[in-house]
């Protein structure tokens, strides 16, 4: 019974994540959640006090998944190769979903910044952690002369995050890989990313 | 009477623009619009068939205003100075509103891309026009050696748009000028923007 309850809770979070990402938190009603999850109203309220709590659970789960994605994507034979691989992986991630849904954190940032302080804080933390992970790789790459050294690693990391979020926005709008691919290639050049030569 | 009607229509658009920017289209109800505008339901439906039509009118008006802003901001003694002045003006624009509301087009892009094709097309056109205006200045600056010449002007213009949208997102989330200022300064450096020396 406890296991069944936990499975229901997980199903609510998974289904809610999809609908929030597509419609946004604000526009999603409890009825939308009921038809998306297929659970009864009583069951939904047994697991969560309301929509905001479901949103928090979704953000928590997605944050953990995103950090795991970052750790897996930021790998390579040199720090510059790690950044390059991350660029490839983040594009692939959005390409795989046909540029539908975009970045849950970016969407929530734009939707929640002025109206849901709890969500805004959670998303702000995700962006900071993302930026910190990039900064580590940029610093290491700079030491080895594999990324331009005339700008602080922190500034370059923040620009990477901003450019990727903007690139996702453009690709999602046009349902085309072109804007995001272009932004990532331009980032590679302006960072002066030096990659190991292929054998 | 015709003038009074036009004034009411303008008031509905102006008040709706504010509430859409803060709450998003999806989360704004007709009741929200009625209390924001103070007009009666009958009067609102006399001017607009529904929320979607109000959204279109808001996007049209804001697009025209934004193009006017771009033409005013992209001015200076050299093409590089035009880009620099635009960076300063776009920061000031968002600073003046305390990083509340953000960019209506960015918000609409994230909200409408998968659900409201009419809005998505309008916003996509705004981004294309914005990018085209930047591209003209970048090209002119490249000819004069005032911006790096190793990347196509179109790619640099697209990166500027993406980075600014991402920077607005971060500043709005943190209610701080720091992320956007940082992104714009980093853009100045990675573009290798050469400005006229002050006298």
Describe, in plain words, how this protein is organized in 3D:
Two copies of one chain form a homodimer. The first copy, chain A, starts with a helix and ends in a 9-residue tail after the last helix. Chain A contains nine helices and no strands. Chain A has a domain at 58-190: Orthogonal Bundle (Tetracycline Repressor, domain 2). The longest helix of chain A is centred in the middle third of the chain and has 27 residues, at 117-143. The relative contact order of chain A is 0.11. By secondary structure, chain A is an all-alpha fold. Helix content of chain A is 75%, strand content 0%. Chain A is elongated. At the A-B interface, helix 6, helix 7, helix 8 and helix 9 of A face helix 6, helix 7, helix 8 and helix 9 of B.
Short description:
In chain A, 75% of the residues lie in helices and 0% in strands.
Characteristic terms for this protein:
homodimer; mainly alpha; Tetracycline Repressor, domain 2; 199 residues; 9 helices
Mean pLDDT level of chain A: 92
Would you report the number of β strands of chain A? 0
Greatest interface and its residue counts? A-B, 49 and 49 residues
CATH class category label of the domain at 58-190 in chain A = Mainly Alpha
Q: Mind telling me the CATH superfamily name of the domain at 58-190 in chain A? A: Tetracycline Repressor, domain 2
Q: What is the CA–CA distance across the termini of chain A?
A: 56 Å
CATH fold assignment of the domain at 58-190 in chain A: Tetracycline Repressor, domain 2
Supply the helix-strand structural class of chain A. Answer: mainly alpha
Helix proportion of chain A: over 70%
Largest sheet of chain A: none
- Ranges of chain A where pLDDT stays below 50 over 5 or more residues in a row are none
CATH architectural arrangement of the domain at 58-190 in chain A: Orthogonal Bundle
- Helix and strand sequence of chain A: HHHHHHHHH
Radius of gyration of chain A: 19 Å
Number of helices of chain A: 9
The backbone outline of chain A, from C-alpha atoms, is elongated
Strand content of the residues of chain A, in percent? under 5%
């Amino acid at each position: 019974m406890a296991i069944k309850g936990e499975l229901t809770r997980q199903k609510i979070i998974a289904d809610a994540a999809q609908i929030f990402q597509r419609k946004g938190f604000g526009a999603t009603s409890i009825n939308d959640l009921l038809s998306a999850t297929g659970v009864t109203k009583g069951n939904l309220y047994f697991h969560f006090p309301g929509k905001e709590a479901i949103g928090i659970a979704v953000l928590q789960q997605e944050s953990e998944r995103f950090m795991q994605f970052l750790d897996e994507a930021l790998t390579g034979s040199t720090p510059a190769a790690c950044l390059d691989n991350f660029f490839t992986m983040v594009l692939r991630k959005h390409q795989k979903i046909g540029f539908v849904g975009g970045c849950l954190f970016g969407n929530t940032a734009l939707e929640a910044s002025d109206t849901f302080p709890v969500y805004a804080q959670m998303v702000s933390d995700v962006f900071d952690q993302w930026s910190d992970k990039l900064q580590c790789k940029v610093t290491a790459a700079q030491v080895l002369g594999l990324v331009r050294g005339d700008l602080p690693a922190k500034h370059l990391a923040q620009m990477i995050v901003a450019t990727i979020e903007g690139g996702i926005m453009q690709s999602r709008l046009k349902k085309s890989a072109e804007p995001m691919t272009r932004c990532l290639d331009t980032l590679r050049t302006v960072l002066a990313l030096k990659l190991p030569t292929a054998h």
